[in-house]
Write a structure and sequence with these properties.
- There is one protein chain.
- This protein has 91 residues and is an alpha+beta fold.
- It is 23% helix and 32% strand.
- The chain contains two helices and five strands.
- Strands 1-2-3-4-5 form a five-stranded antiparallel β-sheet, with helices on one face.
- A hairpin with a 3-residue loop joins strand 2 and strand 3.
- The two termini are 25 Å apart.
Length: 91
Amino acid sequence: MSSSLPPESSPLNQHSLRALEQWLLQLGAIRIDNDPCRWQLERPDWSAVLLLDREDLKVIWQASGTSADTQCSLPYGLSRADVEAAIQAGP
């Protein structure tokens, strides 16, 4: 990962907005409608919308071939590594 990001063990609340954006780009996420708080992440078996809310990072997954959404809220106090693992685990 890039050296301009805080260590992956750092909580997300210790990342600047610019660092969070860089991290999301490295995950392969694409900003939705040029909104710095809304991101789309596509994987072969699922897609997710990531919402940078005031209190937490909301993740809304949709598995391929289903209409049901799965969502969770990840507190900014969690480490970037833990949040990334939760996102990548999928729905």
